[in-house]
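Weekly structure sync - notes
Attendees: PM, LS, DV (DV joined late)
Agenda: review two folding runs queued last week.

Item 1: First target. Sequence and structure tokens pasted below for the record.
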Amino acid sequence: GTLNGKQEGATGKNTESKFVNVLGGAAAIACLLVCLFYVVNFSGGISSSTTRWSEFGGYLSGVLLPVISFLTLAAILRTIYLQREMIKLQDETFKAQATQSNALADDYRQARLDARKTMLLNNLDRTINTCIRDIERLEFARNEAAKSIILLNAGGGLASDELLMNLEQLKADVKFIEGKKNKLESLSYLIAVMEQSSIEELQENF
């Protein structure tokens, strides 16, 4: 992009230099032709009469003025064209910068959104793992209570009401935490797959 810009700048400078040279050359040639035409048609050498010099000045102004006016008009039109091209280039540059700024802003917002989503998912994973460990602990305690009841029954004894209640409570606790774990896993999946446009929307869904 920088190389292309330098090449375009060099090409523009060369074009302007050629245009100035053409205008200058045209003006010089016009002056030379006018003087040459006067010398060829009105010979007699350099006059000392102010009247002749005044006539010569009127001749030059009458013939060269339209030529100079035309060249001036061409230069003005060229300047207007260059100004329009410069304004167009500035407008395109501004639009490109605005587009780039918007893209950077979108990338920044998306990066923040992804970071928040990752944080929430990590928190959910830690909570789910905690639930799994609690379930494993409770199931171990439930199995031990069940073994105790089986041993008591096998020995002809009876399990106490407290032991039976503890077993039922352990079963209820396992079921309760498994339900919470399943909901947390569903929430983690939804957060991972749902499309959010902002951190606020993500937080609300969470």
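Item 2: Second target, run right after the first with the same settings.
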Amino acid sequence: ENGVYFSPKNAKEFIWLSRRDGYNHLYKYNTNGDVLRQLTKGDWEVLSVLGFSDDGKNLIVEANKSGALEQQIYKIDVAKGVISQISKVVGFHKATLSKGGSLLLDEYSNKDVPGITELHQLAKESSRVLSSSYNPLKKGRVPKIDVVNIKAADDSTILYGRIVTPPDMDSKKKYPVIVY
């Protein structure tokens, strides 16, 4: 990615992806180099710019706005700076935008879903599931997984971790531990 995205509807404007405020965010500029608006802001990051919608009014992006442990898909109204979430399920979403900007292929998973592929029609704000992976562990005995947050030595940085315990764990018993 080069970080500069020219508007398909207005040749005098472009969008720039920059870390100028400490986070990877989008800024709208005119071709004279003047900042017109900061489109995204906050303590989260735009991770990838997929492109413009077919009408050129929205920029489609992947971002971790819902939290550092997720990647969701959003559309950003380039004129107003309004951000709307396209993906609706908690998890990690990876998307591909069609060349014309009307269709979005969304592949996602989470701790309970091994993989689902959805096709979104952006103008109609509709979607349908194209495929869903079978979970071979669905009826089996699976470990319990807890996500934990730990403060780093600087007392402000959050580190994320997982604790995986046996399905029938007895808190009175001792178990071997692997720290990774």
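Discussion on item 2: The radius of gyration is 20 Å.
Action: LS to circulate a short write-up before next sync.
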